Every structure is written in C-alpha cells, then in structure tokens.
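Design request, tokens follow.
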C-alpha cells in the first residue's frame, strides 16, 4: 500500500485523510500541521515538526496548507517522493517553479497538479500550444476575501501574477489556469467581492487558434477559503494519483 503524508490538516486535508482512512487506499504516515491541537485527525497522526528524515519511504506528499508551506517543503519532498500541491499561487514565483521542476527531474519524481476548485485543467494544458487569450473572473463573498464590502466591488483587475501575490489563498484557480495555459503575465484576472453571494464562482474564458472554451464553476461557500466542491475534487485527484483498477477517469 502507498504511503502518503499531508502538509495541512484543514478543510481539504481532513477530507482527504478521512477519505483515505475510509477506503483504506493508502497508509497515512502523518499530517503535518502545527496549528492542530489534537494528536490525530481521522485516525492519522498529527505532527507539529517536519524534517527530511520523516519523508523517507513516502510515495506522496500532499500539500494543503499555504503557499509558504509549499515553497518551504516542495523541493525537499521531491528528493524522496511525488508531491501534489493545492496552494497553486506559490507558482507565481518563476525562479522557484524552475527549481521545483529541476528537483523533480533530478530525482525522477512528479508534481501532480490537481484541478482543485475548477474543471478541465488537463484540457487547458492539452490546448496550451494554440491558446492566445485567457481570462478568469472570480466572484466571492467579501468574507471569503477577508474584506467587508457592503456593495459589489471589483477588488482587482489585471495580470494573474499580481492577483496571486495579493490574494494567495483565494485565487488558486487563477494560478492553476495560468500554469496550465499561457502563464501568469498573459492571463487576465478579475476578482469581484459581492456581499449578496454565498458561492465561489469562477468564469473562465480561453480562446486560441480554432478553439474557444467557456468554463463556469460555482460552488457553495461554507466559510473558509474552499467551497463545497474542493474536498470532493481533492479526494478524486488523490485517488487518481494513488492508482487502482477498473474504470478510471483521467
Ligand atoms: N487549488 C485549488 O483550486 C484550491 C482550492 C481551494 C483551496 N486551495 C488552497 O489549498 C490550501 C488548503 O485549503 P483549505 O481549505 O484546506 O484551508 P484551511 O484553512 O481549512 O486549512 C489549511 C491548514 O493549513 C494549516 N497550516 C497553516 N500554516 C501551516 C504551516 N506553516 N505548516 C503546516 N500547516 C499549516 C492550518 O493550520 C490549517 O489547518 C490553501 O492554501 C488554499 O488556498 C486551493
């Protein structure tokens, strides 16, 4: 059975740990999260410190904490095993991203990029060579953005690279699309704060030579940064990475 560890035991981490425990689909070595007081979540051991020795023998590290955590541990983890990151805004840093790619190549390990809050990241990446225009509009309740707007407000419009720096916990979808598509400078981001919505909605438009896609995803916001769909999506991505038998959507 494959051995996994989670960095972050919040909404996404807990959902995946529970899923793995229920389905007995992997051994959970530990959940690294210094802010969790309990010694275990869903039967998985919680640890508050992480060092390279703890990564020996693992097959997969899943980061579901923050962009800083991903930046701190991705290269170290890739020396031992594959990595699946959720804090995609970290990839706005090109120099670091290149180091991560080099580490994976040097150690023969992989970075599995999950579709997270949206659909079709694989399809966007497949069309990368012909894409010329990509834009994403996200509409969230001000609370999700850490704001207190009383009326609908456009809080950002411009390149995705800056959006990912300003709202690292809220525009992972923008970062993921930029990474799969035409990059952080050519992808156009718009973030709207709307006190009348209780959903996280992403409207993505991609166009290029002979292709034109519109993707609209809306997911109920249960508070926090992730909507209702993300834990389901995360468990699906984890299952695909862990492998298995029978019918498999890829
Ligand atoms: N890729 C996507 O589409 C997508 C969608 C939603 C959320 N996200 C991102 O995924 C990550 C997790 O989301 P979530 O909803 O589970 O968030 P969450 O706030 O519920 O959980 C994050 C967890 O990380 C822990 N954490 C914080 N700092 C840490 C540190 N230094 N070391 C270890 N653990 C630390 C927190 O204690 C918390 O338990 C966030 O970065 C979020 O922005 C990505």
């Amino acid at each position: 059975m494959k051995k996994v560890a989670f960095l972050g035991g919040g909404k996404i981490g807990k959902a995946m740990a529970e899923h793995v425990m229920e389905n007995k689909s992997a051994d959970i070595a530990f959940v690294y999260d210094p802010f969790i007081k309990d010694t275990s979540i869903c039967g998985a051991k919680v640890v508050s410190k992480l060092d390279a020795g703890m990564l020996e023998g693992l097959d997969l590290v899943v980061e579901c904490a923050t962009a800083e955590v991903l930046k701190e541990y991705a290269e170290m983890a890739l020396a031992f095993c594959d990595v699946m990151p959720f804090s995609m805004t970290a990839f706005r840093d090109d120099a670091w991203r290149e180091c991560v790619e080099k580490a994976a190549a040097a150690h023969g390990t992989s970075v599995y990029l999950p579709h997270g809050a949206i659909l079709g990241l694989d399809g966007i990446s497949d069309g990368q060579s012909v894409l010329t225009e990509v834009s994403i509009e996200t509409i969230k309740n001000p609370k999700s953005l850490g704001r207190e707007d009383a009326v609908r407000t456009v809080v950002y419009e411009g390149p995705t690279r800056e959006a990912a720096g300003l709202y690292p916990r809220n525009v992972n979808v923008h970062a993921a699309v930029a990474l799969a598509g035409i990059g952080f400078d050519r992808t156009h981001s718009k973030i709207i704060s709307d006190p009348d919505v209780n959903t996280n909605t992403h409207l993505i438009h991609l166009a290029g030579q002979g292709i034109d896609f519109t993707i609209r995803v809306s997911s109920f916001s249960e508070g926090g940064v992730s909507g209702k769909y993300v834990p389901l999506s995360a468990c699906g991505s984890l299952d695909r990475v862990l492998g298995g038998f029978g019918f498999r959507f890829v």
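Comment from the thread starter after seeing the answer: thanks! The first helix runs from residue 11 to 23.
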